[in-house]
Amino acid sequence: MDGATVAYWADLIRNANDAAQLKRLHSKILSGAHSSVYLSNLLIQMYGKAGDLAQARAVFDREAGKNVFSWNMMLGAYASNGELEEASAIFTAMPQRDRVSWNAMIAAYARDGHLAKSREIFEKMPHKDLVSWNSMVAAYAKDGLAEEAREIFERIPHRDAVSWNSMLAAYARSGDLIKARELFSQMPTKNIVAWNSLLGAYMEAGDVAEAERLFHSMESRDEITVTTMIRGFARHGLAHKSIQAFESIQSPSTAIWSAAIQALI
Predict the structure, then answer these.
(1) Which tens digits make up the pLDDT trace of 17-54?
(2) Distances in Å between the alpha carbon of 66 and those of 39, 51, 58, 71?
(3) What residue stretch is flagged as signal peptide (predicted)?
């Protein structure tokens, strides 16, 4: 099959609205002898996104020329639909794994709260990349496990903004404002995510004065910044300050309007 034909069918598959439409396209591909490993992999991926794991598995099992992408697509389909037992079985059976395979399993276990299994896969990974390092820090941060997150963070060979922001989020969620502020001051670059994370931590801890000081020192603000302030002020009985924060925005978004209305209820 020539490249133009593959591209034609691939475009139709990507734009399918649901599993039923995918099945119709799949049937036409088979009847016209247009099948290829690339299209099979794409069908597995899209069936997975549509939640039709039976069809995804049928395509996978029927494909004689499976490659590492085929296995990763099937693994991803199971993982994204919360079928960890099946995802693990695919991972175990893979003739070869790449970083995508390892990272998919790390993320799948972490997403479902199985941090011990996620860590086990992570430690077995032969060649860790920044995605795997950051995934583990973020997983621990999500549960407020700052010490575990910091242990991974310190081992990262080369950190990026995601590494720093995830570690900051870990301290923020665990309520350790001293270490959060200390880490914030050490960050080589501070993006809006970092500022918002620290801002939210101060509001959550009830240190409204420090949150307000931080807010006024920010060079740029976004929707999350303003809604954090509006809701934070309201939660601490400072409705008038919620209004002031709302009025500091020239064109409030729907989310900001909603936060302001809730603050006045």
Answers:
(1) 888 888 888 888 777 666 789 899 999 999 999 999 99
(2) 11, 21, 13, 7
(3) none
Q: Tens digits of per-residue pLDDT, 140-164?
A: 999 999 999 999 999 999 999 999 9
- C-alpha 112: how far from its chain's center? 13
What is the DSSP code (8-state) at residue 101? H
Q: How far is the C-alpha of 191 from the C-alpha of 202, rounded, in Å?
A: 17
pTM of the model: 0.81
Decide: helix, strand or coil at residue 159: coil
Q: How far is CA 243 from the centre of its chain?
A: 33
Query: Strand, coil or helix: what is 94?
Result: coil
Residues in the chain: 265
Collapsed DSSP state (helix, strand, coil) of residue 122 = helix
Contacts of 89 (CB under 8 A, 6+ apart): none
The HSE-up count of residue 80 (CA atoms within 13 Å, CB side) is 17
* First and final C-alpha spacing in the chain: 63
Quick one: tokens of 127? Answer: 């060649």
Q: Of 233, 156, 236, 224, which is closest to residue 191 (Cα–Cα)? A: 224
